[in-house]
Design goal:
The protein has 157 residues and is of the alpha+beta class. The chain contains five helices and five strands. It binds FE2/S2 (inorganic) cluster (2 copies).
Length: 157
C-alpha cells in the first residue's frame, strides 16, 4: 500500500502499509531520522511531529491516518525562519537546553505548536500543554527557553 501526503511542504508518496506507524515511515521510508522512538505507546513525546499543525505522537499514528494531510518534522520546522531556525530553536541554543538530546526534537515540536496557540504561556500553561518526558530533567531550561522564544517570536524572529 502507499500513502500520499504533504511532507515538509512537498507532496510525497511513501510505500508503506496502512498500519505502519508514521514514526517508522518517516525514519525508514523518508529517511528523516530527527523524529525519535522512545516508548512507542504515546507517553514520552519523543516522536512528536505536526499533522496539520497539531502536535501528534507519530508512534501511534498509522500511515492511513495521514493521507492527504500535511506533516512537518523537526527537519523542516525552522525552514521558513531566518537562518533556518525558528524562535524555539534559537532560544533552545541560547539557553543550551539539551543534555543527551534524545527527547529534544519532540519538545521543540511541542513548544513550537504551543506558541502558535498561546503566544506568552505561563509555567502552568507550558506544563499542561507539553506532556513530553525528559529523563535528563531539562524541564526548567525548557520553560525558560519557551519564554525566550515567545519574546523572539514577538520581535519577529
Ligand atoms: S515514542 Fe511516541 S510517545 Fe514515546
Ligand atoms: S535531554 Fe536527555 S532525555 Fe531529554
Amino acid at each position: 500500500m502507499s500513502v500520499t501526503f504533504v511532507l515538509n511542504d512537498k507532496s510525497t508518496t511513501l510505500n508503506a502499509p496502512d498500519d505502519k506507524p508514521l514514526l517508522w515511515a518517516l525514519r525508514e521510508d523518508a529517511n528523516l531520522v530527527g523524529t525519535k522512538y522512545g516508548c512507542g505507546i504515546a507517553v514520552c513525546g519523543a516522536c512528536t511531529v505536526h499533522v496539520d499543525g497539531v502536535p501528534t505522537r507519530s508512534c501511534v499514528t498509522p500511515c492511513s491516518a495521514i493521507a492527504g494531510k500535511s506533516v512537518t518534522t523537526i527537519e523542516a520546522i525552522g525552514s521558513k525562519s531566518p537562518g533556518g531556525f525558528n524562535a524555539v530553536q534559537k532560544a533552545w541554543i541560547e539557553h543550551q537546553v539539551p543534555q543527551c538530546g534524545y527527547c529534544q526534537s519532540g519538545f521543540i515540536m511541542a513548544a513550537t505548536a504551543l506558541l502558535e496557540k498561546t503566544p506568552e504561556p505561563t509555567d502552568d500553561e507550558i506544563n499542561a500543554a507539553i506532556t513530553n518526558l525528559c529523563r535528563c530533567g531539562t524541564y526548567p531550561a525548557m520553560r525558560a527557553a519557551i519564554k525566550k522564544a515567545a519574546q523572539l517570536k514577538k520581535a519577529g524572529a
